[in-house]
Design brief:
Length: 472
């Protein structure tokens, strides 16, 4: 008889070291880096074939809730539920509220904890090892997945194997922090150590019991946040005040390093945390010279490079071991061995109050997206796509007027007390201070060009009166 379990997908990471692709509003879990599916979608699809798999419980932040829901809907999966963190509190509290949600559905619920921003190239191996981990979880253990190390990496934590249990599973002898180079080499040479993958399996009840024993104040805060949560469309919104008061800590520090029931399942599923451009180069298909070329790229006399073009043609000649990533508004050129330092470029942008680390030129919204086309003093031009049946909020701006030109489709426009149908090649003007709404009543996407003009054009100059997506 198959064990029934809930995948818990953690989707709150930022992935700053994969800038300029990964950004605050579109972090790496929402990017298609290795296939046509995003990392979030790959995570959900990886476990769906497993016997006993229930709909996933997804934990994400408020800003990305519609993006996460839409990406799962694209692959025919709906979370049950999607839990919204008002603030980040690391993995231990996030898993606690997921465990509380699962326990409501089934007192003996088993959980398979999965970060949404990792990749696995041998999913069938992972599923076999996950079945072993879930069996151990059903017997009262807290299981983690230890990855067979391919190199003495200093960017990962390590797990020391203890007494054998069954097959590839052992008791955990110790957890080790990210080591220096010499220590990492010693760990790998000993054959006793595995990489800490950040994936786990245990029963909801066992995790909550251990968290209550080891970190009672954390469990109490998570319980208050969950008990005071509110339904918001298809989302479960945790109470902000209660969750903000919860201590922030990882599951490793809070539970796994202290429990007496930790076990590790040795696994070699082609795992990567895709933490840097160098890591992505390592798991991507390469040409005979060791290059990875993505997009409109021409390479000559180059070797060991990762070159990615998102918008424009990139020619690279005579390069060795470099990372080159082009997007519409930013270009990264870095030595592959310095991939960890990309986060410093992001910090520099943040310190200078720039926006290239926050969002791409295309910004996703629950109704569709907009793309910045041009901007200057007192004007801004955007290309807008509205999904069939979707609508922007009924809103007003204090500082800008808007002129909409429909490129394809038909727009239903509310302007003050009037309602208009605006067809292809027609336009409408929205004066400053006028209540307005844009809707797509059709069955095809609506595309239009928006020209904003005024003294202030920031996205925070929006007063919402009605919004089907319940945004502030």
């Amino acid at each position: 008889m198959s064990l029934r379990f809930y995948p818990v997908i953690l989707s709150g990471g930022s992935g700053t070291r994969l800038w300029p692709m990964s950004r605050k509003l579109l972090p790496k879990q929402f990017l298609a880096l290795l296939s046509r599916h995003t990392l979030l979608q790959e995570t959900a699809l990886r476990v769906r074939p497993m016997a006993g798999c229930e709909p996933p419980i997804v934990v994400c932040n408020d800003e990305q809730r519609f993006l996460a829901a839409d990406q799962l809907r694209e692959i025919g999966i709906q979370a049950a539920p999607m839990i919204l963190e008002p603030v980040g509190r690391n993995t231990a509290p996030a898993i606690a509220v997921a465990a509380l949600a699962a326990r409501e559905r089934s007192p003996d619920a088993l959980l398979l904890i999965l970060p949404s921003d990792h990749t696995i190239t041998k999913p069938e191996v992972f599923r076999q090892d996950a079945a072993i981990a879930l069996d151990l979880a059903s017997r009262g253990y807290l299981a983690t997945f230890g990855i067979v190390p391919g190199a003495p990496e200093t960017g990962f934590g390590y797990i020391e194997r203890g007494a054998p249990l069954q097959g590839s599973a052992c008791k955990v002898a110790s957890f080790r922090e990210k080591p220096d180079r010499a220590s990492a080499e010693g760990f790998v040479a000993s054959g006793r150590f595995l990489w800490n993958s950040g994936m786990f399996a245990f029963s909801a009840m066992k995790y909550l019991d251990e968290l209550g024993r080891l970190r009672p104040e954390m469990l109490a805060a998570a319980q208050r946040a969950y008990e005071r949560s509110a339904r918001d469309l298809d989302f479960l919104r945790l109470d902000r005040e209660a969750f903000a008061a919860c201590p922030s800590d990882s599951i490793d520090y809070a539970v796994m390093e202290k429990t007496l029931d930790a076990v590790v399942v040795q696994s070699d599923p082609g795992w990567s945390d895709v933490g840097t451009w160098s890591a992505l180069w390592g798991i991507s298909p390469k040409d005979a010279a060791g290059n990875v070329a993505v997009g409109d790229v021409y390479l000559r006399d180059s070797g060991g490079c990762y070159v990615r073009s998102e918008k424009r043609h990139v020619s690279a000649i005579g390069l060795k071991d470099l990372v080159v990533v082009e997007t519409e508004d930013a270009l990264l050129v870095a030595a592959k061995e310095r991939s960890q330092d990309v986060k410093e470029a992001v910090a520099n942008l943040e310190a200078k109050a720039r926006t290239e680390h926050v969002s791409h030129t295309r910004v996703h919204r629950p109704w569709g997206y907009y793309e910045s086309v041009d901007a200057g003093e007192r004007f801004q031009v955007k290309r807008i796509m509205v999904q069939p049946g979707a609508a922007l909020s009924l809103q007003m701006h204090h500082h800008r007027a808007e002129h909409w030109v429909v490129v394809s489709g038909t727009a239903k426009v509310t302007r003050g007390e009037d309602q208009l149908l605006v067809s292809e090649n027609e336009s409408v003007f929205i004066p400053i201070g006028t209540k307005h709404r844009l809707e797509n009543p059709g069955k095809m996407p609506l595309y239009l060009i928006e020209v904003q003009s005024g003294g202030y054009l920031g996205e925070d100059d929006i007063v919402r009166f009605e919004d089907r997506y319940k945004r502030n």
